[in-house]
Amino acid sequence: MAVKDIMDALKSKDLSEVGIKENLAQLVKDIKLVGEDLDVVLYLPKPGLESLIRDKVHEALSGVPEVKKINIRFSESPPPKQEFPSGQPAFTRRPVPGVRHLIAIGSGKGGVGKSTVATNLALALRNLGYKVGLLDADIYGPSVPTLMGIKGERVTVSERNKLVPIEKFGIKVLSIGLMLPSEDTPVIWRGPMLMKALTQFLFDTEWGELDYLVLDLPPGTGDVQLTLAQNVEISGAVVVTTPQDVALADVRKATSMFREVNVPVLGVIENMAYFTCPDTGKKYYIFGKGKVAEFAVTYNLKILGSIPVDPELSERSDRGEPVVVTHPDSEVARAFMGIAKMIAQNLG
Ligand code: ADP
Asked: What domains can be seen in the chain, in order of their start residue?
């Protein structure tokens, strides 16, 4: 089920009886489907047509069983012409120039290790010989500068008026955390301003030629994830979860969101999968065993790898020492290398 099917259904209805030549799809300014709920913003071409348009939308979508709830809002300004060449959805996905593969790392909830995974995965891809960038899109909790040991550094602007990412451990890194006056400055951007910043991070940055740009998304299924997924060409998403029920419940939603906006989900990474006792070598499945596998089967997802709980990973991360670089022989680093290989194989 894709938004395209919904747009096709909307195309079938017009308002010719009240002298409007556009079909419903051509009135769409914004549209998103989350689970079974559809949110749509429509241009109101004439005052007083609200209920007629509402009825027509419901009629048009009555044959689309995946949509259970329709939330319609109206806007008085028409959709921008150039983005709507032939009643297409408002989002035409743009590739990031010079970037071969954009990989989005998402999670259902915070604290499952998404940023740790994104950072080490980017470095693991670089260890495989690829040119790699890492973009921290977790605007409200940017932790990549800490993880990469570049907390005090600040990005500069090039002669071409583009952002210059910081280079560390052989990869290019950009994060809002590298632009704020100080670490404690709160980010209060919302909606359009936030999207403008992210668009700039992607398109107005000297990324150069990259094989992989790894995007650390904010947790959950909010506007940032949806807007990015709808506007930027993403090769694939990777979802990170721990085996805890609370994390799994939310990662289901994240997976569905990517699929609904037609972003292929490359697979799931199980973080904090088990703990290996250093004295005996015995594995303890602290948060339960087999739950992520069960989820992967239900959602037809590949498990890209399982990463153990490692207290040293946490300490080293806080010190800005990514294990893939500083302790390449550790169990955790080897797990990240395995995941990177799988992703590279997958994307070619
Ligand atoms: P998120 O980006 O999902 O919010 P983080 O990557 O910031 O999560 O990780 C949250 C905390 O968990 C950090 O302190 C991190 O060092 C720690 N952590 C992540 N993965 C592991 C792991 N496999 N073993 C031990 N600690 C981990």
From this structure: 3-75 (3.30.300.130), 99-346 (3.40.50.300)
